[in-house]
Design goal:
The protein is of the alpha+beta class. The chain contains 7 helices and 4 strands; from the N terminus they run ααααβαβββαα. Strand 2 and strand 3 form a beta hairpin.
Length: about 170
């Protein structure tokens, strides 16, 4: 009974700490589950790290009923850090290749905490290239062009003024 209780508490605490909500860790795992080898490898490595941490806890005398809680919290933390780091590095290469005139970024960790709450309005990042507005998609790992009706609502006002970005009806 204690094992289950502490495991559930560990899940909720880690999910809130890393993802901003009690069910977001599970939601992101399900949404990003199709991302291929790099993401899958990071999650598998995270599980291996969690297994090692649990084994270490056993060796140093941590009570057995806490093993599941240790495994869950370490696997969530290490997978968030590894997937996040990989995504940030890959994004850096993509941005460098895209060569925007100007760019703003929010880290994937901010996206972990905010995007699941409001998928439609959280801007992961934006760029201007030849006064054409783009937004960043972590799902597709690329920039996509923003429509003129959306761009003025989400881009910095200085970009909108400088490039005369306006709504079209």
């Amino acid at each position: 009974m204690k094992t289950g209780f502490f495991a559930v508490v560990a899940y909720f605490v880690a999910s809130v700490a890393f993802f901003g909500g009690p069910f977001r860790a599970l939601g992101l795992l399900l949404l990003w589950g199709d991302r291929g080898l790099p993401y899958g490898s990071a999650v598998l490595l995270a599980l291996a790290i969690a297994l090692l941490a649990t084994h270490f806890a056993e060796r140093v005398g941590v009570p057995r009923f806490l093993y599941a809680a240790i495994f869950i919290s370490v696997s969530i933390a290490s997978s968030a850090v590894m997937v996040g780091t990989y995504a940030e590095i890959k994004r850096g290469y993509i941005v460098e290749k895209f060569k925007p005139d100007v760019e703003i970024r929010r880290s994937i960790f901010a996206s972990f905490r905010n995007a699941p709450r409001d998928f439609q309005f959280f801007l992961h990042g934006a760029a201007l290239k030849d006064c054409r507005p783009y937004a960043w998609s972590y799902r597709r790992m690329e920039f996509y062009e923003l429509s003129p009706s959306v761009a003025p609502n989400v881009l910095p006002s200085s970009w909108v003024k400088e490039c005369k970005i306006g709504r079209t009806h």
